[in-house]
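Readers of this paper often ask what the protein records in our data store actually look like. Nothing more is needed to write down the fold, since each code stands for a local backbone conformation. Below, we set out a record of this kind in full and without editing:
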Amino acid sequence: MRLSEQDNQLRWDGRKPGFYEVYYLKVNDPRVGIAAWLRYTLLAPQRGDPVAEIWGFFFHRNQPAENAGLKATYPWSETRVEQIPFRFATRSAELTHAEARGELVGGGRRLRWDLRWEPNAATVRLLPFRWMYEGPFPRTKVLSPNFDIRLSGFLEVDDRVYPLAGAPGQQAHLWGTRHAARWVWGHCNAFVEDAEAVFEGLSAQIQLGPLPLPMLTLFVLRLDGRMIFMNGLSAMIRNRSQAEIGVWRFAGQGPGIRIQGEASTSLEHLVGAIYTDPDGSRRWCHNTKVGDLRLTIHQRSEGGWHRKELTAPGTCALEWVGRTQDPRVRIWV
């Protein structure tokens, strides 16, 4: 078993209420401007029976009227989870460490997928310290067993099939007892100038007991074959983030590196969804997988500071989440 596959194993103990767990997969095909966002989830509410949910979203950069979002909910008793090798299966969908299949139907729309990829050898952990994954703080843990993958197979939307061959994507795993109060997030591994570069950023407000903390912002960048983490305690406070629905401007720094970025999307490319906490409270999600990103990087070397720019037109995943809904964005699920 790859070490990264261990990080896909289910963390819920199968009994305790007040827990949620999410596996998500996203994929872009820059050639035709399409993308998909797939979620395999568990919700064990504080009151009531646990359920599994399969979410599927389709995005079309050039024809946003074709966007779609569907969800199916099943009793957890009908869900099969295997740890070694990892497998999460419901009536309509299945996820392993190297494959994803599923089908969703509703509202006159249909979404089907059959995808496979070569797994990453190592997990990328967005949080800086191991104790953050093992202890109660923060209440949500997030990591990417498959931070940068290339997917093959197909997406089928209504009566149209989109074949995929080497399409860039990501598969991540998160779990916890409560969502952050609000956050903005982005991930991109389809830059025009550098196919090997990968960026992920998160700016989130969490609570320490009853007290909300200031926004904490962290970044991970793979550049020139090197992983660069700007996510230490001082970096999370020093990094900068300004966001409103549809736009995220940010800046970060680490040893010998500074980054500035602007990520954006038009409202027509956003889909809305509701995240539910185990206590029943809600977060309103505004998400796209066809956003734009411009990243400016300054690196220090023996000759001084050198500038590099990376652009991703229509291939950046972005998400704005908070306690209020933007009425301009349609809620799909």
